[in-house]
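User: Teach me something about this protein's shape.
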Amino acid sequence: MRKLFFGLIAAGVMVAGSAHADAIADRKATMKGVGGAMGTLVRMVRGQADFDAQAALAAFTTMNNATTGFVDLFPEGTETGGKTTVSAKVWEDRAGFEAAVNKFAGDTAAAVAAAPADLDALKAAFGPVAGNCNACHEVYRIPQQ
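Assistant: First, the predicted structure itself:
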């Protein structure tokens, strides 16, 4: 009976560790998708790529979809490991972090609804979205060297 008890505890610890590793991997994959979408938009805004309404809408849609369940990818216990670059401030200021994600969700939803049809409209929608990325990274991400 004692072996069964400790075996169940060990299994629970392994599952919890796996869940945390999955959360880190999932949030990294999500952010990689957002970063790719941002890159598409940045190239258009900077004139490094031609404006493409469909590509812009797809990029904003990718970003907006990423916000669904995003805060759930930061459970307690995933502050470290998996070469994460997340600042402890995510857990210290959870309300602020959730507010930042909600603002990003709102601004990306507005950009999707606007469906920019030309470069000027893209730039107007892009500004608030890019500002959210920068603001969140300044507070909730460990600075990259």
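Now, about its shape. The mean pLDDT is 87. Helices lie at 2-45, 53-66, 89-92, 94-114, 119-140. If you'd like, I can walk through any region in more detail.
User: That's plenty for now, thanks!
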